[in-house]
Each structure stands twice: as C-alpha cells, then as structure tokens.
Batch of 2 targets.
Target 1
Amino acid sequence: MFIDGQWLKCDNTFDVLNPATGEVLGQVADGDEHHATQAIEAAHRAFESWSRTTAHHRSSILYRAWQLMLERKGELAALMTAEQGKPLKAAANEVQYAADFLLWFAEEAKRAYGETIPSARPDQRFIVQHQAVGVVAAITPWNYPVSMLTRKLAPALAAGCTVILKPAEATPLCAIAVFKLLEEAGLPAGVVNLVTTSTPAPVGKVFCESPLVRKLTFTGSTAVGKMLSRDAAMQLKRVSMELGGHAPFIVFEDADPVHAAKGASLVKFLNTGQACICPNRIFVHKNVMPDFLQTLTSRIEKMRVGNGVTEGVAIGPLVDEKAVLKIDRQVNDARDKGAEVLCGGQRLTQGEFGDGYFYAPTVLARVDDSMLIYREETFGPIAPVISFDDDDDVIAMANDTHYGLAAYVYTKDLSRAFRAVEQLRFGIIGVNDINPTSAAAPFGGMKESGLGREGAREGLMEYMETKLAGYSV
Ligand code: NAP
C-alpha cells in the first residue's frame, strides 16, 4: 500500500492470480479500515497545500506521468495481460487510453475557467470560480485496471483534490504500477494514497462515513454502486457512479448487415465481453438477419481463445469461476427456452484451458424476452441476437431496461439515425461506430448505469465546487 508517500508492507497479504493459468503472480498487502483511515488522514493533511498549487504546476506533474506511462507501455501491458487476462495488444491499447486521460487533464487543468455574471444591481458584481471539492475516495473495478484509475485520478489531481484509491482485489498489481509512476512523476506525500484489500466492504464503509472525505467516485456494479451511494448520502457527499450496462446494438433494415456484423464481433468480444459498453442485446431487422448471422458466426468461429500472451489470441480468460458460472447459467437458460446456439455454448476445459477460466465465444439466435440473458448484464463472450421488424418496437425493446450506459445503431438513413439517438435513453451512442469513447468525450450512463460523467470537461467539473462571490462595489 502507498500511504502518505510511503510504501507499506502488511502482516496480512492476499494472493494475486493469473486468470489464464491459475499461477500466483504475487502477494499484496491486505489492508483494512485502519489503513483506510490512515490514508484519508494523510490525504486530508496534503489537501491544504496541494489545492493551493497552481493549475500549471499540477498540469506539469500530470504531463510527466503521461510521459512515464507511455515509456512503460509494454511493461504495463505485460503486467495487465498476466493479471487481468486481456490479450497483449488490447492491454497496450488500454495503457494508451489510460495515458490519454493524464494528458487530457494535464491540459484541462489550465482551463478550469470561472465566469462573471452581470447583476441587476449597478453596484454589484458576480464572480463564479471553481475550486477543488476536497479529499476524494475512489473505488475501481478489475476489467480495465489501469484506465479506470487514471480516468478518476487525473481529473481529481488536476482539480487540486487529494485521493485515496482502493483497486479491485483481482488487479492490485496494475494499481501498484500506476502509483509508482505517479510517485516518480513528483506528487508530494499524501496527495495520492493506495489501499489494497481483499475485503472491500469495511474500507468502503470508512470512505462513506469519514467526514474528511468530500467525494466518492466509484466504477463497478450497479448493486455495489447503489449501496455506496446510500451510505455516502448520510453526509451528502458528492458521488460519481459509473455502473453496469446492458447495451442494445440495433441493425436497421437499411444497414449493411456484413459491416454491422463485423462491428458487433469486435465490440461484443472486447475484453472477452467484460466491458460495461459491450453489446448485450443485438437487435437485427428480420430482413437482414440471415446475412448478419452468417457473417457474425463465421468471424467468431475464427477467433482464437487462449492465454493473452500468445500471438494471435483474440479472446482471453474470464476473471474468475463466478463469471464462468454466471454466463453458463445464462446460456443454458436461453437454450432451454428455445434459443439456437450457432457457435460456442460451453466452457473450455481441455489442455491449455484446464487451469484458467475460459468460455467458448458464443452466438445465440432466436433470443427473446423470456430469457435471463435478455435482462441481465452478461459480462462474457456471448452474443444474443433478437429479431425485430418495426423501428418503434425496437426502440421500445432497447429502452426496456433499468440500465442506460451505451447503445449502438447501424443505419444508412440519416433521419432514422437522428430519431434513434433522440429516443434511446443511453448516455453514449455509437452510430455506425463501435468506439464512441475518448478522454475528450463525456463517458457515463443514464438511469441505473450511474451518475455523473468521466473524461471531457465534465470529468474535471465532477471534482470541483462552484463558488459564487457577489461583490458590492
Ligand atoms: P463490483 O463487484 O461492483 O466491484 C467494483 C469495485 O468495488 C471493486 O474494487 C470491488 O472490490 C469493490 N467493492 C465490492 N463490494 C464493495 C463494498 N461492499 N464496498 C466497497 N467496495 C466494494 O464490480 P466488478 O465486478 O469489479 O466490475 C464489473 C462491473 O463494473 C460491471 O457491472 C460493469 O458494467 C461495471 N463497469 C462500469 C464501467 C463504467 O464506466 N460505467 C466501467 C467498468 C466496469 P473487490 O474487487 O475486492 O470485490
């Protein structure tokens, strides 16, 4: 753990495993509520001086961190593949995406502009300024173990906040590597603090209950996000919640089904289907269904599954046994209720798959609303395909979920694209595009997919208070 500028060892440790091989990669300090309190106190002490540094100074440190991250791209990617499982190329892409946040917020730090507002009184001036919200507690997931950290740390530091971060139990080594880099970039003691733990609940409770923490930022499941929001509400702490998704992917009648199937095969199987923006319900117009299914299935049958370090592997392992059991349950339920398994459909256990958590990439046709997979977030390499024949019906089906993170639309008709974007209740929509994300663009969900936005200008404002001064002159 990294607290008040010191790397701390701990009597208690927990093992970090490689999900492709079951190999133990290392032991990490198993922190508890006392460490969380210690880290919050250190962040509180550091806040006074850090929040008074100039935006230019904070920017220069973030800029240095960006350079260091790019210099270490290969090293970080290799660590991520071992600890989290995604193929090396995808891991390198994630490191680039993570570095993008450091650069974006190094620049944005200098643009935290306020404003002057005309008053109705001749002797009065209104001036609005933005100031750091205070000590921030951050909790991050395992699926993007580097970029989910910088998406929170970079704007918080740019704003002048100090931070305590708890990474996921499955991926603390990536978090340690990021904190070493931040230390080297020149952050003063106490400005960033890392608490690793195998028992998140007591640490989360301290984050919510400490009066010194003014903001809680969380990325993870909707269930945990709701619980933390409820606890943080007792002190009306500010919260940002990046939660689960259940993305619709709509292929309209006029779309090119081959192009759309290619897009679906790429974005659905991203990170073995373990991304919050992965399509979870693929709606295809009945007239283009045969071509779509044929292209999708033939592309997926060619995807190589295996350890992400092996050249040519496109699909790595799932994170753990629980994840395998969840998707196996969804696939069996769909099969029992009449879905057709066009490829995959089972766990992989033979040979090199024996010690890891592998599942064959799967296409399910004839999925309907009676099936679990139609309602639950999947988080695995399963593409459920549903037929439709009316635009209004498909928009209603797409919106029929309590999630509202990402959605995708394929059409060549501009009016249809506009109508769909306006009617879909999702925070991020790709139109003939499978990667509508960037450090420069606001990322976040509607409904139970969360509160607030990360990245972009909005991402900085999440860590700032708005202060109005009315001057009598
Ligand atoms: P999770 O179980 O909610 O865990 C997320 C983080 O919360 C982990 O660090 C976890 O620690 C911690 N945690 C769990 N229970 C806690 C508690 N009682 N108090 C405090 N912290 C607690 O989610 P996950 O399975 O890691 O991540 C997958 C979910 O994240 C999916 O639903 C996905 O859609 C969502 N996600 C959303 C976004 C987005 O930007 N919207 C991005 C990525 C992922 P442990 O690891 O120790 O359990």
Target 2
Amino acid sequence: MKDMDSALSVAQLPAVVDAVLAETQFIDMHTHLFQPALKGLMCWGIDELLTYHYCEAEFFRSAEMTPAEYFALSKAERADRIWTALFVENEPVSEATRGVIAVLQTFGLNPNTGDLRQAREFFSGRTLEQQIEACFRMAGISAAVMTNDPLDGEEAGMWKQGVAADARFPAVLRLDRVLEGWEQNYERLQQEGYAVDRSCGRHSSAELRRFLADWAKRMNPVYMAVSLPDNFDYTGDEFRSHLLREVILPACEELDLPLSLMIGVRRQVNPELRLAGDALGRADLRSLELLCLEYPRNRFLVSLLSRENQHELCVYARKFRNLLPFGCWWFLNNGSIVEEITRERLEMLGLSFIPQHSDARVLEQVVYKWRNTRRTLAPILSESYRLLMEDGRAVTRAAIERDVQRLFRGNFEQFVGRKI
Ligand code: HDL
Ligand code: ZN
C-alpha cells in the first residue's frame, strides 16, 4: 500500500521518485510520428531505426564509404552497413546507437548479434497497431503529438479525404514551408484556390490566414509550429517577420493556439549528408524577447537548439509567462546536456517548464528516449527534494506525484488549453 501523505526520509527519495516517474504516463509533446490513419507516413522497425540520420551521421565517421555510395544502396543494405560499422566493429556507446540496443532488449531480441536477421524477422511479424501499443506502453507515454505539414502533397491529400482524430496522436500545424519556404510554396496555395502572391501583401495575407483557418479546422491542432534558423531576426524588416506579424500571430490568437518556435537550426551545412546534414547555431534571443513583449495575448512554446542559449531562455521565461520552455531539442538530447539544462530550469523556473519531448521520427525511438529521460531526471529530481528537505521542508509521495504530473502533463495541457 503506497503511503502518500507521510513525510519521506532522504533514504526513501530515490525509490519513490523512480516509482513516480515510472508510473506517470507522459505526454510526448513534439514528435514526427503519425497516427495510423495517415497511412504509410509512420516510420517503424529496425531498418528505419538504423538508417535514421542520427546513426547515419555517426556511420560516415566510422566507415570508408562515401555518402554518395551509401545513399546508392537500398535501405536494408544501408542498415546492414550501419550495423556492421557501429555495432559490430565498434561498441555502440553513443546515445543514438545505445538507443537501438535498448530497443532490441525491449523486444527480447539479441543485441550482440552480427547481423539483422532475427530483428527483421521479428518486426516483419508485427502490425503497426501492435507496435504502437507496445512502444507507448514501454515508453510510458499516453500521447505522441504529431508534426503535420499542410504543404506535403502526400499528407495533405489524406487530410483532405478526411482523417478521424486519434487521441493518441494530437495534430500540429507545421509552418516551415510557409515561413521558411514561401518562394518555393506560395504557388501551391494558389493552386489550392488561395489568392496569394509572392510579396504576400494585404490581400494575400488575408488569404494565407484563410488557408491556416481551413487547415486548423481540418486538423484540429493543439498548436502551430515552425523551426527557425540561428540568425532569426524579428527586428529586421524580413519577409519572415512580416508573415509572423501580419498572418501567423494574429491567426494563432484568433484560433487560441500557441505557436511553437524551435530556434537555432542551420539547415544543410553539409548537403551530401542529406537529413544528417543539419547543424546548429546560437541565436540572438532579442527576437524572442520582442515577440513575447509585443504579443502578450499569444503563447509561445520555445525550444532552442544551442546549449549556449539555454540559461538565457530560463531568464526570459522568468520575464514572460506567455513563454513556455520545452525539451532538450535534437543535439541537446544527450544525458550530460539534459542534466545541465534540467537542473538550471528547476533552479530558475521551479516546475513551470516541460522537461522533454522525444522528437521521435521512428516509432521505436520513444522507447529509448523516454527510458533515458527518466534515467537522467530521477537523480536530479531526488536531489532537488533532498535539498528541500535539508532546508526544512517535509516532502510526501503525493507532492512528488503532483509535481511530475505538472512537468510532464499539466504544463502542456494548461498551455494548449486542452486535456490530452
Ligand atoms: O525540425 C524539427 O522538428 C527537428 O526536430 C528535426 O526533425 C530534426 O531533424 C530531428 O530529427 N530532431 O531530433
Ligand atoms: Zn522535431
């Protein structure tokens, strides 16, 4: 029987924090997973796991093969090469390669094998629904928030046919092709019947807002999202800022949707690596400061890609309650950096932030990413409560459960204004 309300001893803390983290179902509030009704879009299974750009980037450092030679291979051949280079010829000690080992262990597969025969046989015998149920259960998540692109031909076509809502997969309206790729994409909106033009003047802005409203009705998103480069400069009279001011932020306010800003990416610094070719840069957060100040009725979910931006993000979050920091994004999702970021957030923001999202693009990634998150956060939370007790406060299991619920569910639900 759990004793919820008695003051815990210091010695009891680690086990209780571990148990509460293990028993709490998290909301994974940013992923690239897709509900099954979006047929064929979900990536899953061992070959997808190995050939995602996390392992590819490491493969190119440990193998003689050039990227051009690698990309000429079939997906299975690429996975075989990656397995040999990173898992047979070397111990898989990196975050991404150890994650693959964790997935094999989770499904009872041999992690010391020389080839992928057993794993391929296992995954070929599974259905997507079986995998979703198993991966969500193992990861301890109740929902994986999607990233949905209204200008992706294949995905948009399915949404126009009608996609029934799946509570496990809340939708998100992703705006990169609008904000970052207007030149390449505005004609697609024209073809869809929206009278937009290249300069996106007054009438065009109204039409673009109609486009967003139509897609918000179709997808019922929990937020809108865009990734922005490290040199994002809202103060500059840039076209991007014009779209934010004239279209995106008014639309978000009208639709009562937060805007997720993921800032700091430097796309394709090495194009020959394809998806593995992106990097990062430190952003000037005065743009974020201006947005939060000028749009107090808008809500901003913010994740930054540079480690050097994290402390100032905490300071800005202390200044603006319409700014909610989330996750340790992409290159930051490594134990050593997650620990640093989470500790400074607890010290400066208390429980008013979202510690993590998986960013998973392959379904099985949630298994290892959330195992690692719990593994990294447990001692950090225990230490926070130990210090609190040392400074005079009694801590109960009920209080820890309430806090973990807020960190991994309540903050997000309150910000999007919806139970997930
Ligand atoms: O733009 C984004 O949402 C990023 O998260 C990209 O998906 C990135 O490629 C990634 O894989 N992050 O983990
Ligand atoms: Zn992402």
